[in-house]
Amino acid sequence: MNDDVRNIVLGVIAAGISATLGWLARTFLWRRKLRRKQAFFGLPENSESLLVVNRDPAAGEPAVHRFDVYALLELSALIKDCGAHLHVVTQDAAHQGFGERTEFCVGGPGSNRRMMAHMSAMLPGVRVNIDAEPGPDRGAFQIGGERYRMDPGITEYVLLARLTVGDRRDARPVFLFCGQRAITNQAATRYLARNHERLTRKYGTGSFVLLLKVINSQAYGPDVVELVEDVTRAAQTALPAAATAPRNTHRAS
After folding, report:
1. Across the strands, what pairs with 106?
2. Segment 198-226, tens digit of pLDDT
3. For 82-181, where are the alpha helices, taking DSSP H only?
4. Which residues pair with 196 in a beta bridge?
5. What is the reported pTM?
6. What pLDDT is attached to residue 241?
7. 36-64 in b/e burial notation, b at 16+ Cβ within 10 A?
8. Does the first or last residue of the chain, that is N or C, have fewer Cβ atoms within 10 Å of its Cβ?
9. Of 149, 155, 222, nearest to 182 (Cα)?
């Protein structure tokens, strides 16, 4: 074998080794990223999850608002990416506890009984005005001592929460998407899909409650979202007894 042939063979071998090492490195990083994502969502390979669907309060018959359908589709994609399975149930048919499998619950307490139950059990510092009559406080959030009113289509708010209960290390989380309007529910699911890596770095697999502001949804849809504040402590601290909830206001207590 002359020098030219030997150099060609060595070059091919070196290229093959480099390609193999590069593939192994990319595979390792992809798997590590996937494991972090699965841990954050509580969705190991082939696990089961629950998607709780709310109802459209404006519809005469049981129906789901189109923006909530979009939210469910985005959540379905996240679940599929983790290699998990999902079961879709309506808000009045979810009769089970939490912690056994990851749950994604969409819609405010006025359209989702399951959301009302979760907020009462886990977010005692939050009240949502579910009065059907028009007024400045319709749909408003009260979190601790702060009130957040919506200006429909201009400024709207949504709570995005990841909650775990008890000390079980294997307890699966509950994700809440509680918005003042259906489009804000979709905005929260999209925010989670885009920012879950940053949220993982900050919170790990712990609980958090974030207040998000959806800006000018009538022009930008669910895409322009700002983080207002981390309200975990206020949301999980019971409101004073003197702050009695008015009629047609859901009190999470």
Report:
1. 177
2. 999 999 989 999 999 999 999 999 999 99
3. 113-122
4. none
5. 0.82
6. 65
7. bbbebbbbeeebebbbbbbbbeeeeeeeb
8. N
9. 222
